[in-house]
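Rather than argue in generalities, we reproduce a single protein record, letters for residues, whole numbers for local backbone shapes, just as it appears below:
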Amino acid sequence: MTPLLVIFIGTNPVVAVGTDIAYGAVTKTVGGWRHWRNGTVDMGVSKWLAFGSVPGSIAGVLLISHLHHVHGAAFNDTLLWIVAGVLATTAVITLARALFVPALVARERHEVALHRHTKVAAVLLGLLLGFTLGMTSVGSGALVGLALILVFSLTPHRVVGTDVFHAAIMLWAAGIALLFVGNIDWGLMGTILIGSLPGVWIGEHLSRRVPAAALRPALGCVMLGSALGVASKAGADLSAGMIIGPPVIVGVLAYGLQRVRVREVLVT
């Protein structure tokens, strides 16, 4: 949402981050409730992630507000580069994991056993991801979902439910902090919600029907395109073809690779 607000509407980056977080708190609550009812949420992982992500997200909101207050409009391009960097890093890791490390798929599990080291890892990850979210609004879906896949090896559909449920908690913490520092365009938020709430409802239904192998590379391609778009807005000299081309090419390659793997499985 932050890239869309910045690129297509021209929203101030700091306000885009704040509006995205506030609107996301509402939509993730709706989606999280739906996933919880359908049993696609790992409550244990969500709880321990929240122990770190709640204070982390508040700290991120306070820091970005302080930097914007100190540096003013000069901070906007810096923030855009930070957002683009986070998106690009997440896209590369997601695509690499989906396309070149298929062995990890065999380790996917429906539920995580909460040993002491698992709890500590969840709190530390939550702290880092919450801080990133508070700074950039990126993380409520992309980064947390990636951590649930790479660190906790949850199945993709369990990742979606746990991610959305935990994100609601994290976003409400950041959203409450934003009430004190501002940076929310309430009119824009209300307009977005008109379309977002039914969209979340439909998306939750589809998430349980879309093949997992299609979800991973699609997510990576969307994030890659978003990163390039935000970098262009920050001042990078990128044409429309240079922004749209790489995600499309990667998507076609991912589709072709998946077809090859399916044929290999059928042959064996």
Summary: The first helix runs from residue 2 to 9. The chain has a mean pLDDT of 83.
